[in-house]
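Sequence, please.
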């Protein structure tokens, strides 16, 4: 079915993230965390799609089982996480089910 190795979907089902990974993603909610990690998070299908289509570098897409089908339309580099973990990562009261981590443009600028 797949002609090239790069076409094989990279979906990590219900991957358990380490405490450090969880802390890093949660820290991206703050300005200090974004500056330290040189990354930022985007939430929701539309904004993630727009940013994935832009020159920005996608690091990882996290999704819930409910939104997996929609997430697969955006990228093959997907990690499925629980609703409770997505709630912790989300800025919103009601999370969208899709969260992307991107490399900050500031990291691309020369020092």
């Amino acid at each position: 079915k797949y002609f090239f190795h790069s076409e094989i979907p990279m979906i990590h089902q219900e991957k358990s993230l380490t405490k450090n990974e969880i802390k890093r993603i949660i820290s991206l909610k703050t300005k200090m965390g974004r500056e330290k990690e040189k990354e930022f998070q985007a939430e929701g299908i539309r904004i993630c799609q727009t940013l994935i289509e832009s020159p920005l570098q996608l690091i990882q897409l996290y999704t819930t089982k409910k939104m997996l089908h929609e997430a697969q339309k955006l990228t093959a580099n997907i990690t499925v996480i629980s609703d409770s973990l997505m709630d912790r990562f989300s800025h919103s009261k009601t999370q969208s089910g899709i969260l992307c981590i991107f490399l900050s443009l500031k990291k691309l600028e020369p020092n």
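Strands lie at 10-12, 39-43, 58-63, 77-80, 98-103.
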